[in-house]
Amino acid sequence: MCQVSLDFLIFIKRNASFGMISVLTGLTPSEWACDEEAFETSSGTCREIMAEIMALGRALGYDESLIPSNAPDIILADARVKLRNTDFVPSALLDVRRKTPFELEVILGRVYRQAKVCQVSTPVCILSCQLSVAEKEASWLTLFTRFSQ
After folding, report:
1. Of 15, 104, 114, 123, which sits most exposed with the smallest number of CB within 10 A?
2. What confidence tier does 100 reach under pLDDT thresholds 50, 70, 90?
Protein backbone atom coordinates (compact mmCIF):
# COMPACT_ATOMS: atom_id res chain seq x y z
CA MET A 1 0.00 0.00 0.00
CA CYS A 2 1.10 3.54 -0.81
CA GLN A 3 1.83 5.32 2.50
CA VAL A 4 4.06 8.31 3.21
CA SER A 5 3.06 11.11 5.57
CA LEU A 6 2.73 14.69 4.36
CA ASP A 7 5.31 15.78 6.96
CA PHE A 8 7.78 13.28 5.52
CA LEU A 9 7.17 14.52 1.96
CA ILE A 10 7.70 18.15 2.98
CA PHE A 11 10.87 17.27 4.90
CA ILE A 12 12.22 15.09 2.14
CA LYS A 13 11.74 17.73 -0.57
CA ARG A 14 14.29 19.96 1.11
CA ASN A 15 16.55 17.37 2.69
CA ALA A 16 16.89 15.07 -0.30
CA SER A 17 17.38 17.81 -2.86
CA PHE A 18 19.78 20.04 -0.89
CA GLY A 19 21.67 17.03 0.49
CA MET A 20 22.10 15.48 -2.94
CA ILE A 21 23.26 18.75 -4.54
CA SER A 22 25.76 19.25 -1.72
CA VAL A 23 27.09 15.73 -2.18
CA LEU A 24 27.34 16.09 -5.97
CA THR A 25 28.99 19.52 -5.89
CA GLY A 26 30.96 19.17 -2.66
CA LEU A 27 29.53 22.57 -1.69
CA THR A 28 27.43 23.53 1.30
CA PRO A 29 24.05 25.15 0.54
CA SER A 30 25.54 28.51 1.57
CA GLU A 31 28.39 28.06 -0.89
CA TRP A 32 26.14 27.12 -3.80
CA ALA A 33 23.58 29.78 -2.87
CA CYS A 34 26.31 32.42 -3.14
CA ASP A 35 27.81 31.04 -6.35
CA GLU A 36 25.67 32.01 -9.35
CA GLU A 37 26.98 29.27 -11.63
CA ALA A 38 26.73 26.54 -8.98
CA PHE A 39 23.22 27.65 -8.04
CA GLU A 40 21.95 27.77 -11.61
CA THR A 41 23.51 24.41 -12.41
CA SER A 42 22.25 22.65 -9.30
CA SER A 43 18.81 24.23 -9.01
CA GLY A 44 17.54 22.24 -12.01
CA THR A 45 18.42 18.97 -10.31
CA CYS A 46 16.86 20.21 -7.06
CA ARG A 47 13.66 21.04 -8.93
CA GLU A 48 13.60 17.58 -10.55
CA ILE A 49 14.04 15.79 -7.22
CA MET A 50 11.30 17.94 -5.68
CA ALA A 51 9.01 17.37 -8.68
CA GLU A 52 9.36 13.60 -8.35
CA ILE A 53 8.60 13.75 -4.65
CA MET A 54 5.62 16.01 -5.37
CA ALA A 55 4.37 13.51 -7.98
CA LEU A 56 4.49 10.85 -5.30
CA GLY A 57 2.55 13.18 -3.02
CA ARG A 58 -0.12 13.64 -5.69
CA ALA A 59 -0.36 9.85 -6.11
CA LEU A 60 -0.87 9.62 -2.35
CA GLY A 61 -3.76 12.09 -2.55
CA TYR A 62 -2.04 15.29 -1.37
CA ASP A 63 -3.50 18.01 -3.56
CA GLU A 64 -2.37 21.49 -4.60
CA SER A 65 -3.55 23.00 -1.32
CA LEU A 66 -1.11 20.79 0.61
CA ILE A 67 1.76 20.62 -1.88
CA PRO A 68 1.62 23.64 -4.20
CA SER A 69 3.04 23.08 -7.67
CA ASN A 70 5.26 26.16 -7.30
CA ALA A 71 6.84 24.76 -4.10
CA PRO A 72 10.25 24.05 -5.72
CA ASP A 73 10.59 27.65 -6.90
CA ILE A 74 9.54 28.98 -3.50
CA ILE A 75 11.87 26.64 -1.62
CA LEU A 76 14.85 27.45 -3.86
CA ALA A 77 14.27 31.22 -3.73
CA ASP A 78 13.87 31.02 0.03
CA ALA A 79 16.98 28.86 0.38
CA ARG A 80 19.02 31.20 -1.77
CA VAL A 81 18.30 34.03 0.68
CA LYS A 82 18.19 32.18 3.99
CA LEU A 83 21.15 29.83 3.46
CA ARG A 84 23.64 32.49 2.40
CA ASN A 85 26.41 33.02 4.92
CA THR A 86 25.21 30.22 7.18
CA ASP A 87 27.28 27.37 8.51
CA PHE A 88 24.62 24.77 7.63
CA VAL A 89 26.12 21.59 6.18
CA PRO A 90 23.67 18.84 5.19
CA SER A 91 24.31 15.65 7.10
CA ALA A 92 24.75 13.79 3.78
CA LEU A 93 27.70 16.04 2.88
CA LEU A 94 29.14 15.63 6.38
CA ASP A 95 28.87 11.86 6.01
CA VAL A 96 30.63 11.89 2.63
CA ARG A 97 33.39 14.13 3.99
CA ARG A 98 33.83 11.71 6.89
CA LYS A 99 33.72 8.78 4.46
CA THR A 100 30.78 7.20 6.29
CA PRO A 101 27.59 5.90 4.62
CA PHE A 102 25.15 8.73 4.10
CA GLU A 103 21.45 8.82 4.70
CA LEU A 104 20.37 9.79 1.20
CA GLU A 105 20.17 6.14 0.27
CA VAL A 106 17.74 5.61 3.14
CA ILE A 107 15.70 8.79 2.47
CA LEU A 108 15.50 8.47 -1.31
CA GLY A 109 15.22 4.70 -1.03
CA ARG A 110 11.98 5.18 0.88
CA VAL A 111 10.70 7.57 -1.79
CA TYR A 112 11.72 5.10 -4.50
CA ARG A 113 10.01 2.14 -2.81
CA GLN A 114 6.78 4.08 -2.25
CA ALA A 115 6.86 5.49 -5.79
CA LYS A 116 7.26 1.97 -7.16
CA VAL A 117 4.20 0.82 -5.22
CA CYS A 118 2.27 3.88 -6.46
CA GLN A 119 3.63 3.47 -10.02
CA VAL A 120 5.20 6.94 -10.04
CA SER A 121 8.33 7.49 -12.13
CA THR A 122 11.31 8.78 -10.13
CA PRO A 123 14.39 8.60 -12.39
CA VAL A 124 16.35 11.37 -10.62
CA CYS A 125 15.68 9.85 -7.20
CA ILE A 126 16.71 6.43 -8.54
CA LEU A 127 19.94 7.89 -9.93
CA SER A 128 20.58 9.57 -6.58
CA CYS A 129 20.15 6.24 -4.79
CA GLN A 130 22.49 4.56 -7.26
CA LEU A 131 25.11 7.27 -6.76
CA SER A 132 24.75 6.80 -3.02
CA VAL A 133 25.45 3.09 -3.32
CA ALA A 134 28.30 3.69 -5.78
CA GLU A 135 29.88 6.22 -3.41
CA LYS A 136 29.80 3.70 -0.63
CA GLU A 137 31.15 0.86 -2.75
CA ALA A 138 33.57 2.52 -5.17
CA SER A 139 34.23 6.02 -3.89
CA TRP A 140 32.57 7.67 -6.90
CA LEU A 141 32.98 11.05 -5.22
CA THR A 142 36.74 10.80 -5.73
CA LEU A 143 36.17 9.94 -9.38
CA PHE A 144 33.60 12.73 -9.77
CA THR A 145 35.98 15.24 -8.23
CA ARG A 146 38.80 14.13 -10.51
CA PHE A 147 36.63 14.45 -13.66
CA SER A 148 35.11 17.80 -12.67
CA GLN A 149 38.45 19.61 -12.27
Report:
1. 123
2. confident
